[in-house]
Structure formats: C-alpha cells, structure tokens
Amino acid sequence: MFTGIIEEIGTIKSIEKKEETMDVTIEASVILSDVQEGDSISINGVCLTVTTFTENTASFDVMPETFRATNFKDLTEGSRVNLERALAAGGRFGGHIVSGHIDGVGRIVSKTPEANAVYYEIELPEELTQYFIHKGSIAVDGTSLTVFGVKGNTVLISLIPHTMEHTVLGNKEAGDDVNIECDMIGKYIAHFMKNRETEEGISASFLKENGYV
After folding, report:
1. 86-95 pLDDT per residue, tens
2. Where in the chain is the domain with CATH 2.40.30.20?
3. Hey, which bits of 34-87 come out as E strands?
4. Among positive and negative, which fits the CA dihedral 19, 39, 101, 192?
C-alpha cells in the first residue's frame, strides 16, 4: 500500500519494450537507501516489484496488463517519474489509501495558474467519473491530490508550489496523459451498492427514501 506522497523524482535509465511488455531500469537515491529484491515501488502510481538493484538503480518487469492500462507506453529513456516506497507498518500516513493499481489513463485538458496554485482540468474515462466527488481523493501519476471540481467527465485538481516542484506533474502540459487511481473506499461502496440494487433489501433508493443519501 502507498499514500501518494512522492518521495523523489527518478529517471528512466533504460527501457526495453517487447510488444506489450517492458523491462525498465530507473535511477534514484532516496527510495534505494533500503531497497531489497522483491520490494514494491510505485512508479508514476504503478506498483512494481524490484527484480534487481544496484546502489543507484533498480529494475522492474512490466506485464501486458500494466502496459495496456497505464501511460507507461509513453515512457522513454530519460523520462522523469514519481517514486514512492510501499508504506511501512507504523509509518506516517500523509496522503490517502493508494493501492498502486491504475484504474485508467486521463488526459490533461488545461493547466491554469492562479496565485500560488496551478489548476489542472483532467478528462477521465467515462466509467471512472462515478468514483469522484468534490473534496474527495484522487491519485494522479501516484500523487495524492484533492478533487476541487467535478463536471461531466472531467475533474479539477490544484497543485501547490511544493507539489509542482517535487513531482513530475509540474512539467505536465495540456494533452499529456496521466495515470489515474480512484479512491479505493469509493470503489468498494459503488460496487456494494450496485450489487445490492439487484437484491431484496438495502438499495440506493431505499437509502435515499430514508434520508441516508
């Protein structure tokens, strides 16, 4: 499990694409200080397993499902990526629950500075919009952020200067693709309610009629 608090920006040292699989090696420092083979590392929000490592590099295998469901196909040698180690038991929980399992790829529609913040409007796959609410959580390229607006199939997020400087989102522009992970709690609730609607008992209409929603 991750929290969406990016520890450092790493660099793709080498990448070998084989149809819909990839061998990826990154250069980093902070996340490799205590790395072990088999550790889970989030790269742009994608949970991957360390296969080999050196003092300043780590390598990973990317399977077809990850290749198809993320923006990894856009990575090249020299690409900058967000990095986060899996949360240690008893560690500080600074963001929100992030699994590292990408739900879909969004596209930045606009990037608008306002005072000390920068607002990003992101277009989402239509099937993901049900999981986002105003002031809810979203992970964008693995970065834990707050949703400040939901309109149609787009969400609005706001980045403070620290996030602009310390994540790859600061260098993203309109037209760029980003990995999206929905709020896990919201997904579970939506799944539960969808199943219950077809069964006798609690349903969305029941909850609404009785003042729960």
Report:
1. 988 777 777 8
2. 8-85, 104-198
3. 40-43, 46-53, 57-62, 80-85
4. positive
Q: Are 14 and 77 in contact (CB under 8 A)?
A: yes
pLDDT per residue as tens digits for the range 163-184: 999 999 999 999 999 999 999 8
Q: Which two tokens stand for residue 10?
A: 């790493």
Q: State the Rg of the chain over Cα.
A: 18
Architecture field, domain 8-85:
Beta Barrel (2.40)
For domain 104-198, the question of CATH label 2.40.30.20 is answered with yes
pTM strictly above 0.85: yes
Spell out the SS3 assignment of 81-109.
EEEEECCCCCCCCCCCCECCCCCEEEEEE
